Amino acid sequence: MSYVVLARRYRPQKFSEVVGQTHVVRTLANALKQGRLSHALLFSGIKGTGKTTVARIIAKALNCENLIDGYEPCNECRNCVEINKGIFVDVIEIDAASNRGIDQIREIIDNLKFAPAKGRAKVYIIDEAHMLTKEASNALLKSLEEPPSHVYFILATTEPNKLLPTILSRCQRYDFRRLDFALLIKHLKEICKKENYEIEEEALKLIAREAQGSLRDALSLLDQAMAYGTKTKEDVISAFGWHEAILVEQLAQALLERNLQKLLTLSQEIYNQGVDLVYLMEKLVEFFRELFILKAFPKDTTHQIDSSGMRELVMEYELEEIFLILQSLLKDLEVLRRSNYPQLQFELALVRICEYKKLVPLREVIEKLSKISAEGIKLKESAEEKSRIEERASQGQKKKTWNDFVELLKSESPALFGVCSYVEDVKLENGKITLKAKELLLNSPYYQVFKEKIEEFFEASVEFEIKKQKRTDLNEIKNRKEVQAIIKTFSAKIAYIQPLNKE
Ligand SMILES: [Zn+2]
Distance from the CA of 120 to the center of ligand 1, in angstroms? Predict the structure, then answer.
């Protein structure tokens, strides 16, 4: 007996066996129960998600002689059996990819008026309906609009956007979704159990990831895996030549670590192996998308990435960082697709990401900021300052200048040093210091400390003449000492300046 592929052997025969697509199944079952099924249905969705399978179940439900619960075909009556064998005359399947012309459609239309030969309903299943020619689609339109009461049309398509809008508007549409990862794994496991085939879950995960939500793809990969006798993740990788999977993980890790040397070594390896770079880049983009979701929803259990190493790695990086890499890769993927120098483009993409400075996590920023202000406020007499005082004493009556003071602050406290820029026109007279200061100084949290510091340094009383602030000059803001200090501390750049809303 010849081998029947898993996808066929385990093809769902009734609604309750359909994997996933619960929203579609429930609605269709209800419509059947109530006898209100639309005569023109459109099933859209990626390949291998069960569109034709569900269409056949409907065809059986419409013709079954012992319908169960008003919607479930019995799969035992003559009609059901014949439909399962594909020999029932009233269920007509047309593959629009190979019969896309007007003649086939005319033939259908001419036959519509005849009552079903054996069953209760004539069901036309038109697969890949978007492949029909424009003439054929137009000819079909009228029948879709007012089909005879015994006729049902089920159009299946992977590309609903290519259908004529008039066709779309005449059909009741059902969207078949990609199967989620966990469900795919569960289903694969069940089948392996039924087949008495032992295989590592890690290996099934690889298969499920490659299938991209298509059950049929997953099953045909499993078929191959079984044929090769693969049991482990490593077996699967070598049997299918999925070395990319490993390369992608290595690349992702090196990108996150900004390890340029490792990236370039990998890139050379990839070049030597003759890996398709566009394909690899696509996989890398997908991988970062998964990392992004993993980072954003760490508690979600349906992640495609289950390697604990990757999980741990991802937790070390900020969401923004992963997003930045994803965004950059996605842009480069587009360029790579059109490039005449793919290898160069690929390397450029990697280098560019390395060039991005690592994003500083928010908590680190807060830590640094509080360190700055703590330093500013404490102003404790460090050993350094003590030595300065001693130095001062030894210099005797040598006059202290404003510049000395500024220099001192520069070494002691960046925050107070920044405040110096608010001050100009310093006059030292008879033990009293007069300073012209900008209004900003009064609002500064360092105002009091700053004042005390001056008094302490010059051993004199301080008086500020406050100048009313004119409109803020952007360049002035950029050049402020405290801004410069922050820029320096964080190796940052100014992205934009936003005025604070004062009431
Ligand atoms: Zn039946």
Answer: 12
Calculate how far, in angstroms, residue 79's C-alpha sits from the geometric centre of ligand 1: 6
Residue 181 has pLDDT above 80, yes or no: yes
According to DSSP H, which parts of 19-123 are helical? Answer: 22-33, 51-63, 78-85, 102-112
Rounded to the nearest angstrom, the distance between the alpha carbon of 121 and the centre of ligand 1 is 13
Residue 384 lies inside a defined structural domain of this protein: no
Query: CATH number, domain at 226?
Result: 1.10.8.60
Residues 6+ apart with CB under 8 A from 179: 19, 20, 49, 187, 213, 214, 215, 218
Ligand 1 centroid to 143 CA: how many Å?
28
Residue 54: what pLDDT?
A: 97
Distance in Å, CA 157 to ligand 1 centroid? 27
Highest mean pLDDT among 96-100, 106-110, 217-221: 217-221
Angle at 138 between CA 137 and CA 143, to 5 degrees: 90
Domain count, the chain: 4
* CA 12 to ligand 1 centroid distance, Å: 14
> Does 480 reside within a domain?
yes
32: CA distance to ligand 1 center in Å? 14
CA distances from 341 to 46, 145, 260, 354 (A): 32, 52, 20, 20
Q: In this predicted model, what pLDDT tens digit does every residue of 455-473 receive, in sequence order?
A: 888 888 888 887 765 556 6
| Residue that is last in its domain, among 118, 143, 175 | 175
Distance 441 CA to ligand 1 centre (A): 88
Which parts of 229-259 fold into alpha helices (H)?
233-240, 243-257
Taking the centre of ligand 1 as the mean of its atom positions, its distance from the CA of residue 65, in whole angstroms, is 5
CA of 281 to the centre of ligand 1 (A): 49
Assess if residue 442 is contained within a domain.
yes
Residues 235 and 247 in one domain: no
Q: Measured between alpha carbons, how far is 116 from 59 in angstroms, rounded to an integer?
A: 12
- Distance from residue 154's CA to the centre of ligand 1 (Å): 20
* Residues 15 and 105 placed together within one structural domain of the fold: yes
Helix, strand and coil content of the chain, in percent to the nearest 5, comes to 60, 10, 30
73 and 156 both lie in a single domain: yes
Question: Do residues 104 and 118 share a domain?
Answer: yes
Q: Of 136, 153, 175, which residue is a domain's last?
A: 175
Q: Are residues 52 and 156 in the same domain?
A: yes
CATH number at residue 413: 3.30.300
Residues 349 and 444 in one domain: no
User: Based on the domain organization, do 126 and 222 belong to the same domain?
Assistant: no
> For 298-351, what is each residue's pLDDT tens digit?
777 666 665 666 777 778 888 888 888 999 999 999 999 998 888 899 999 998
For the chain, how big is the Rg over CA atoms in Å?
Answer: 36
Domain of residue 198 covers 181-240
For residue 364, how far is its CA from the centre of ligand 1 (angstroms)?
Answer: 67
Predicted TM-score (pTM) of the model is 0.62
Q: Are 128 and 101 part of one and the same domain?
A: yes
pLDDT of residue 380: 46
Model pLDDT for residues 392-418, shown as the tens digit of each residue:
555 555 677 888 888 888 877 777 887
Residues linked to residue 467 through DSSP beta bridges, in sequence order: 438
Q: Find the 67 Cα to ligand 1 centroid distance in Å.
A: 6
CA of 73 to the centre of ligand 1 (A): 5
Ligand 1 (ion): which residues have CB within 5 A?
A: 64, 73-74, 77, 80
